[in-house]
Amino acid sequence: MVKDEVVLVNFWSSPFGTRVKIALEEKGIPYEYKEEDLFNKSSFLSTINPVYNKVPVLIHNEKSICESMNIIEYIDEAWSDRVPSFLPSDPYQRAQARFWANFIDKELYEASRKIYRGKGEEEQESGKKEVLRILKLVEGELRDKAFFGGDNLGFVDISLIPFYSRFYSWETFGKFSIEEECPNLVAWAKRCLQKESVAKSLPDPIKIYEFLLYLNMYLAK
User: Fold this and answer.
1) Comparing C-alpha atoms, which of 106, 107, 105, 125 is closest to residue 115?
2) Which domain holds residue 109?
3) What's the pLDDT tens digit per position in 17-53?
4) How far, CA to CA in Å, does 141 sit from each of 38, 87, 134, 159, 183?
5) Would you say residue 67 lies in a domain?
6) Are 159 and 202 in contact (CB under 8 A)?
7) Which of 28, 75, 159, 213 is most buried by its number of CB atoms within 10 A?
């Protein structure tokens, strides 16, 4: 049997790369990790992702797969013999999972940037309201389930949980409490953290906050 060669190219703070880490850990797939300096991108990154020139990139047997949610689906299909399966077998439930993961992917990161990089209180307040709107919609979809995928970590869980590392930063910059606004969602996040795949993959919230402070100063130069 030929051994799979799996490499994850990522930047440590990326919530998108964290998704891929969790997926690989959940499936128990051994992989090599390569840190990419996004402040001084290598020519290697442009070779493996010539379209976007960004992380994460999964390299499986010398073939590159880009974009985090696309990578997670690839992992689910390429290692379909390994449990758990991230997407439901039912077509409707699978479509719903893809819808909510896509909603999170398209909306949350951009909205949250206004909180810590907003120019003035008005833009910051706008970002805060938008983030809470998104989180409350997602919390409504969670309802009383343990995870979005039911009893197990699934596609939507993996798409959202990396942002939990940023909750502290959003709250600190925006001066609000996500737990007060979305208690069920925070309870869900704490359940996710009980899983080893999540606990070992998520970066430290304080380290993320310090990085965002540094990033603001760097971009202000």
Assistant:
1) 125
2) 91-220
3) 999 999 999 999 999 999 999 999 999 999 999 999 9
4) 34, 16, 11, 14, 14
5) yes
6) no
7) 159
Q: What pLDDT is recorded for position 1?
A: 40
Residue 2 pLDDT greater than 60, yes or no? no
Confidence of residue 219 (pLDDT cuts 50, 70, 90): confident
105 and 16 part of one domain: no
Lookup result for tokens 């690989």 = 24
What pLDDT does 120 receive? 85
The reply to whether the predicted model has a pTM over 0.90 is yes
160 and 216 housed in the same domain: yes
Write out the DSSP string of 134-192: HHHHHHHHHTT-SBTTBSS--HHHHHHGGGHHHHHHHHHHHT--HHHH-HHHHHHHHHH
Query: How many CA atoms, within 13 angstroms, populate the side-chain half-sphere of residue 82?
Result: 14
